[in-house]
Amino acid sequence: xxxxxxxxxxxxxxxxxxxxxxxxxxxxxxxxxxxxxxxxxxxxxxxxxxxxxxxxxxxxxxxxxxxxxxxxxxxxxxxxxxxxxxxxxxxxxxxxxxxxxxxxxxxxxxxxxxxxxxxxxxxxxxxxxxxxxxxxxxxxxxxxxxxxxxxxxxxxxxxxxx
Length: 162
Known about the structure:
Elements: H1 2-13, H2 19-37, E1 51-61, H3 64-75, E2 78-80, E3 86-91, E4 94-100, E5 109-114, H4 123-133, E6 139-141, E7 144-148, E8 154-158
Parallel strand pairs: 1-4, 5-8
Antiparallel strand pairs: 1-5, 2-3, 3-4, 6-7, 7-8
Helix pairs in contact: 1-2
């Protein structure tokens, strides 16, 4: 976590990100760290879909091969689905997706694994119906849903292999 914060501050100081992007990225990093270490709590009443884990973090960059080599070489992350534009870096039950995309240097979304998404055929339609009921615009990709939270941050939800 310390390395992530140092990198974010360095990018801000070098003008690679705005103050707003820095604050959003720091808040996101803190949220992810908190979620990873928090004990299992009872879900809030009236929840739509029970998230069981952060599925992956999407990291757009100028040259994904540099990040691929850095993270796999330093932390031993397993490289998969390398298609020449992006790849997955797996460690434990976590995935970091590095991809050539602009703007680079900030996390563009968090994906949540939803309980029963892959095994219970009633989950996906129920989640879709609830998102529509709430008036959210749904973008569908590879069997998962993307919506924007109230601050405009992209949230993805789906199964383990989204």
